[in-house]
Amino acid sequence: MIRADGSVIGTKNNLWSGESLSATLQPGDTVVVPEKALGGGLQWQSILLTAQTASAIASTMFIALRY
To answer: What pTM value is reported for the model?
Structure first.
């Protein structure tokens, strides 16, 4: 979160604890959500993409067979 005065709350070191969880939004504050939330190597990205694709195919097949 970036405060209206330019200060930053929720650095990489304390993202899920301490100050960032107890902070209250004030007028003018900006919440920044990173585009790429998951890190990891190419192998993990490939596994996650494969799981997402398999889930979409399974859901489509389930719906198609039901109707």
So the answer is: 0.42
